[in-house]
């Protein structure tokens, strides 16, 4: 069952919440946005001394704040669409805002969605670059691309007057039908954590506060505001939490967004184990915890659990919090701690010192970045008979088939939705096709006639395919926040379309524009399959460059593609009992449980542990060249590294992603293997390279529940190296610890 949630209702409720509340300071007219300079002498106030630490500066400001100031800093003032959108000092048109303290030089916080671009909730976001979706970034396995992605987002946020980025999604793909899979970094915690860490690190270097989200176990959208996600502690630490732990340690994000759902009994935004014990105490997180929009459930419980800021409004952290502090239900020290963390993040990110001069986003640079990252993210899944790359000189006639393939490519929906130049302004839960035309891009490279048909009539499409030498079907699957897929089957009878086209033309190539995996009942009847994800606003050029061999594909899958929905791990999408499931009217307690019984067995670990055959394995992706692996040595010299050789055994230059997996000693009782390291590098035709990859001992460890610590067990560790999780020609067993 697919659940759609209405943001219109949310907006209405937001308006009510805002106008009913008696909290005058939230709308006080003397607030200034960062566009206006605060009326203080910055040279004289001690907290503007940049030689002091962010903590010291935050403490100095804290001493100057009244109770009302403090309260005003810990909650939002409604979403932009609850306000007159012309009033930029209030909301700048985006997801949320927090007033500053102008007399002290503390700027407003202006928050915009930025999953794969600055979102159109943003009034000024009309001209944002739409990057390839986050799962596409994960397919690059490339820290440099992740950094470039974050840098662009940071710049565009900054240019448009935002200082808080709400991107940074790193929920693990436990359930591939989750409608937000496209916003995340795949199914492996180490890959996901390292990539999101690098992305957010570089985003913050542009002087914005970035979040990691949604903390934690928000692994399906259905009933997300009322489900209780249940997972045993060890599995939690080694899977979903590990991705956040790594991301936090690399990026040191200014904020972490707690999720809608409950986790092992308590809602995430009032879950002391999660927010205080694990995140703040154990991981040393020094930023602030911000609620998902409408995910706050209480004052005292949330506050003592470690929620620092309520968004987007003030239902709990406005007047009720003030009263709670006045009557002692919430200690003042706790409020001070929330404010300290928020101010600290503002100083640490540089937003206090640097101000926010708006500028025009550099769209040309954005196009280039978007295309180049897309080129690194396209996964070549099947290439029989060397159907690819296409050769212009062969002057083959081509049929381009697929809905909107003459004009545009699909994008992912929800709060992540971007409106790049030329795209229509979208409404919530509406499919948005970006103006990047596969037909035009292919026509510009083809040596002969290119024809187009939408494919809504599969018989007509097959007839066109039969008359052409090559048929390229652009198939799509739309996904969004606030919904899950019922199935990984392509929608709208596209399997039937592909079957018919393939029957009419043996040279059929399927290009998949999807947010997660799809099943492919036709896979044996087509020689070419390419996964391009949601490819961003230069996607068509990237795809054409790859189809015609100007770009040699190099990406690898960050999720497993199963053969059938029936192969997916339990429990599947769990549906809540009937009732009012409005996200913005959260229940006091969760209404249903999701038992994540697959535990440690997320993604490939599930299929490995159950010996289930898959369609395309995790870590898999072809190139137009081939790579040979040899000579593995595990070298222990204080630290551990895997050293081996890779040869480009084909005819052209290409990038390879070499992957290192390990099987832990038997008494660890772990899934058969886990990814522990990888390296991405380029090789000229015929070139051999010795690759040396350091292996972090934490990634070889298990989480020992009895002592609540990571532990490296004694025993035999079997290492495997190769080009995919199911193609690992090199093996070596070593004893650890040394
Ligand atoms: C919801 C989404 C979150 C988003 C926020 C603001 O909480 O889950 O991802 O950043 O709304 O739009």
Short synopsis of the structure:
The chain is of the alpha/beta class and 738 residues long. It folds into three domains: 2-28 and 54-354, Alpha-Beta Barrel (TIM Barrel), CATH 3.20.20; 379-552, 3-Layer(aba) Sandwich (Rossmann fold), CATH 3.40.50; 625-736, Immunoglobulins (Immunoglobulin-like), CATH 2.60.40. Helix 5 runs antiparallel to helix 14 (363-377).
Estimate the global geometry from the Cα principal axes. globular
Per CATH, the class of the largest domain reads Alpha Beta
Q: How many domains make up the 3D coordinates? A: 3
What is the mean predicted local confidence, pLDDT? 91
Strand content: 15-25%
How many distinct helices? 19
Q: Based on the structure given, which CATH architecture of the largest domain is correct?
A: Alpha-Beta Barrel
Separation of the first and last Cα atoms: 52 Å
Taking the sheet with the most strands, its summary is: 6 strands, mixed
- List the ions, cofactors and other small molecules found in this model: alpha-D-glucopyranose
Tell me how many strands there are: 29
Give the proportion of residues in helices: 25-40%
In spatial order, strands of the major sheet run 1-2-3-4-6-9
The CATH superfamily title of the largest domain: Glycoside hydrolase, family 3, N-terminal domain
Structure description:
- This protein is of the alpha/beta class and 738 residues long.
- Helix content is 26%, strand content 20%.
- It folds into 3 domains: 2-28 and 54-354, Alpha-Beta Barrel (TIM Barrel), CATH 3.20.20.300; 379-552, Rossmann fold; 625-736, Sandwich (Immunoglobulin-like).
- The strands form 8 sheets. A 6-stranded mixed β-sheet has the order 1-2-3-4-6-9.
- Helix 17 (494-504) links the parallel strand 15 (470-476) and strand 16 (508-513).
- The chain is globular.
- It binds alpha-D-glucopyranose.
């Amino acid at each position: 069952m697919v659940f759609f949630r209405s943001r219109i209702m949310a907006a209405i409720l937001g308006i009510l919440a805002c106008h009913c509340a008696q909290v005058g300071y939230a709308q006080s007219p003397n607030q200034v946005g960062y566009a206006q300079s605060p009326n203080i002498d910055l040279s004289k106030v001690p907290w503007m001394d940049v030689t002091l630490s962010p903590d010291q500066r935050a403490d100095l400001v804290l001493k100057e704040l009244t109770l009302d100031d403090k309260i005003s800093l810990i909650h939002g003032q409604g979403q932009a669409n609850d306000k007159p959108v012309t009033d930029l000092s209030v909301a700048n048109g985006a997801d949320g805002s927090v007033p500053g303290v102008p007399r002290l030089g503390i700027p407003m916080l202006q928050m915009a969605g930025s999953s794969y671009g600055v979102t159109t909730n943003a009034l000024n976001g009309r001209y944002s670059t739409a990057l390839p979706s986050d799962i596409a970034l994960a397919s690059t396995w490339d820290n440099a691309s992740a950094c470039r992605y974050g840098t662009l987002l940071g710049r565009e946020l900054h240019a448009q007057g935002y200082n808080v980025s709400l991107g940074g999604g790193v929920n693990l793909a436990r359930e591939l039908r989750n409608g937000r899979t496209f916003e995340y970094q795949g199914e492996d915690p180490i890959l996901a954590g390292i990539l999101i860490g690098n992305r957010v690190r570089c985003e913050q270097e542009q002087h914005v506060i970035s979040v990691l989200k949604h903390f934690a176990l928000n692994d399906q959208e259905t009933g997300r505001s009322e489900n209780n996600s249940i997972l045993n502690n060890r599995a939690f630490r080694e899977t979903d939490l590990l991705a956040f732990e790594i991301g936090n340690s690399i990026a040191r994000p200014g904020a972490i967004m707690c999720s809608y759902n409950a986790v092992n009994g308590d809602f995430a935004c009032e879950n002391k184990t999660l927010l205080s014990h694990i995140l703040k105490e154990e991981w040393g997180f020094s930023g602030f915890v911000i609620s998902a929009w409408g995910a706050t459930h209480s004052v005292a419980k949330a506050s003592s659990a470690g929620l620092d800021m309520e968004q987007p409004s003030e239902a709990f952290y406005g007047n009720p919090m003030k009263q709670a502090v006045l009557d002692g239900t919430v200690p003042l020290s706790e409020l001070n701690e929330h404010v300290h963390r928020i101010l600290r993040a503002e100083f640490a990110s540089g937003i206090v010192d640097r101000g926010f001069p708006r500028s025009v986003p550099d769209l040309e640079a954005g196009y280039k970045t978007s295309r180049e990252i897309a080129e690194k993210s396209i996964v070549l899944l099947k290439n029989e008979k060397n159907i690819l790359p296409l050769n212009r000189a062969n002057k083959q006639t081509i049929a381009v088939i697929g809905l909107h393939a003459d004009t545009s490519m699909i994008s992912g929906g929800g709060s992540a939705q971007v409106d790049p130049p030329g795209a229509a302004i979208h409404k919530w839960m509406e499919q948005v096709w970006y103006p990047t035309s596969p037909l035009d891009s292919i026509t510009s490279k083809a040596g002969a006639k290119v024809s187009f048909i939408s494919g809504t009539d599969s018989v007509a499409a097959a007839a066109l395919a039969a008359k052409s030498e090559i048929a390229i079907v652009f198939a799509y699957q739309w996904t969004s926040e606030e919904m899950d897929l019922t199935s990984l089957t392509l929608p709208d009878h596209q399997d039937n379309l592909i079957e018919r086209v393939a029957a009419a033309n043996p040279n059929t190539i399927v290009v998949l524009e999807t947010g997660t995996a799809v099943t492919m009942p036709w896979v044996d009847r087509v020689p070419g399959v390419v996964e391009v994800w949601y490819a961003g606003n230069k996607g068509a050029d990237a795809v054409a460059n790859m189809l015609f061999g100007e770009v040699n594909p190099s990406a690898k899958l960050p999720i497993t593609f199963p053969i059938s929905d029936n192969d997916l791990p339990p429990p599947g999408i769990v549906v809540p009992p009937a009732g009012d499931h409005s996200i913005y009217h959260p229940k006091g307690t969760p209404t249903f449980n999701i038992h994540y019984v697959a535990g440690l067995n997320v993604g490939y670990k599930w299929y490995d542990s159950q010996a289930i055959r898959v369609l395309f394995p995790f870590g898999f992706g072809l190139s137009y060249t081939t790579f040979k692996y040899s000579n593995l040595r595990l070298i222990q010299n204080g630290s551990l590294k895997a050293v081996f050789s890779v040869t480009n055994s084909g005819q052209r230059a290409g990038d390879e992603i070499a992957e290192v997996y390990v099987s832990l000693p038997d008494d660890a009782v772990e899934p058969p293997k886990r990814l522990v390291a990888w390296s991405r590098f380029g090789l000229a035709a015929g070139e051999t390279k010795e690759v040396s990859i350091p292996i972090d001992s934490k990634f070889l460890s298990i989480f020992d529940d009895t002592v609540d610590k990571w532990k490296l067990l004694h025993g035999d560790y079997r290492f495997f190296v190769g080009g995919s999780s199911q193609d690992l020609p090199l093996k070596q067993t070593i004893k650890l610890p040394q």
